[in-house]
What we know:
Helix 3 (65-75) crosses helix 4 (101-117). This protein has seven helices and twelve strands. By secondary structure, the protein is of the alpha+beta class.
Amino acid sequence: GVDAVVIATPTRLHYPMARKILESGRHVLVEKPMAGSTQECVELLQLAQDKKLILMVGHTFIYSPTVRKIKEIIRHGDLGELQYVSARRLNLGLFQTDINVAWDLAPHDISIILYILGQMPTGVNCQGKAHVTAGIEDVTNMTLTFANGAFALIHNSWLDPNKIRQMTFVGKRKMLAYDDIEPLEKIRIYDKRVEVPEHYDSFAEFHFSYHHGDIYSPYVRQVESLSLECQHFVDCIHTGAKPESSGLEGLQVVQVLEAASTSLRNDGGRVELEPIPALSTA
């Protein structure tokens, strides 16, 4: 018999297919984004819990050895207090007809940021424009603000001449650049920072100090992220463990995307993120 099913279909089909599979008593790995709304995600989460089934979402990059290394570097405090994150995920295409570029590309960036920071944003702003298909934005800029003062910028586009997969993590002591397209040196750490004098009596004594130190690239053994993700799904089925990209994490990403869509409709206005009851019970 069939014990588990992987759903890799257009987004509009994720919820109905996942629901039918869970109702049939089978485990599910569904591609990102998990569903088309937070309400659909909550329903899938509840169904999986009720039936004691594994519900996992394809946030592939959190299984990347490179992303895990970045989290380790930041957790150990090598960069100092994290000030902001900048992400760029750009392509020429592939144009979608049922979702905009934020729903298509930003789930990767959002899932990485939430995984590394370990918290949800408190607010979301998003602006964008549809150049090719009316009503479906092909370029978006999203900002996430966090309670601890951290700030994230996410730029996504289907209308760019180059394929770009870059993130920058800026700390008070050092800065880290992540380029997923680089074959070997995907992480580069820059010993750069700006220092402000603690005490000064007059404007003449006030001087910013710019520190320029070494650049180094830590070695990371590369393993295909998708194979690690699939193996994790199988392991969770065998052990009953909660996946690292469970339905809960899928819900969190969709909550951010839904807030971004609301902001888009309101000319980029800030949308506050409220806790969802399912988040505390999942």
